[in-house]
Amino acid sequence: MQNLRQLYQCCFITRKSFLSSSSALLSLIPKYLCLPTLHPVSWIFLPKGQYKSNSISSSARNMSTSTIALAIEKQMVLENGVQQVELLNGVEDSYGGIILNMEEPMESEAFVYSLRASISQWKQQGKRGVWIKLPIQLVNLVEPSVKEGFRYHHAEPDYIMLVNWISNFTNTIPENASHRVGIGAFVINDQREVLVVQENNGTFKGKGVWKFPTGVVNEGEDICMAAIREVKEETGIDTEFVEILAFRQSHKSFFTKSDLFFVCMLRPLSFDIQKQDTEIEAAQWMSINEYAAQPFIQKYDGFSSVANVCLAKLEKDYAGFSRIPTTTASGKTSYVYFNSRDLSKL
């Protein structure tokens, strides 16, 4: 094994090193068997007499330089040939990186050998970042990935995503999503009554504060549709989207994440309230002026500003952002929100 480790230190010879140290290499020729690899400028030297010629199978010649390096130290089986390290099957992304979508079970040790060999090859190819998507059933591969230089990027209920920057260039991997998106629903009827709720949980529990229905936008959900859904879930009221009246940004609102909160004006299509008992303590239609006059609303600028915007929409010439459907370059439907009323005047 000591001789094998010594061989491991010098068995990969590039054309550049061959030209600079040919005299030293010539001394190896009588003692070592020279095998070419698919790498155009490298060879592998194996001690003669210690390996059967037919045991050095074509698989060794078909391995990349980096793969053979691992194979010599960890995977070579004396007298029984060479067991090739299998490279991981990654997909190239649009930014010069590799995405590994691991699906099949794999032993941690075998995974590490394959990961090292694969990364070595990707470095030679000039790849930049490597992403590993591990489903929850492959949790055994998380620790070895971290030990090989990967870090957590983000996690979902069914997988964790790890990433490693392997390039010598400046790291340009984007951080995980920085914001959570929420909505507040300003639902106003023809009697200038606004739909309000009191919550069973959270900051406002037990404080007697009447507030707009609120909620978080789900993944893949449009802001306008999230507002409609949240009102229906909390109060049973059907609505249609009118426009976005205002939005607010705050920081470190949800763990370390920032928060974007959109105030959406909705028109009610039904009026019989059927509150959700789990989250909502009470729900009712309330005069917009009574709502705005609540001590809590008046005390805090964030709430009083929203109330003033809603009043301006009803009483003054205030225009919000309307929803305009568009199509992206990839063919997906999305929405642009803008002041369509004033745009028509340009």
TrEMBL record:
GO molecular function: ADP-ribose diphosphatase activity; metal ion binding; NAD binding; NADH pyrophosphatase activity
Gene source species: Gossypium raimondii (Peruvian cotton)
Taxonomic path: Eukaryota, Viridiplantae, Streptophyta, Embryophyta, Tracheophyta
Transmembrane segments annotated in the record for this chain: none
Protein name stated in the entry: Nudix hydrolase domain-containing protein
One Pfam family hit: Nudix_hydro
Keywords, in A-Z order: Hydrolase, Metal-binding
Record carries keyword Hydrolase: yes
Database matches in PANTHER family: NUDIX HYDROLASE 5-RELATED, NUDIX HYDROLASE RELATED
Domain Nudix hydrolase: 178-310
InterPro entries: NUDIX_hydrolase-like_dom_sf, Nudix_hydrolase6-like, NUDIX_hydrolase_CS, NUDIX_hydrolase_dom, Pre-Nudix
Family: Belongs to the Nudix hydrolase family.
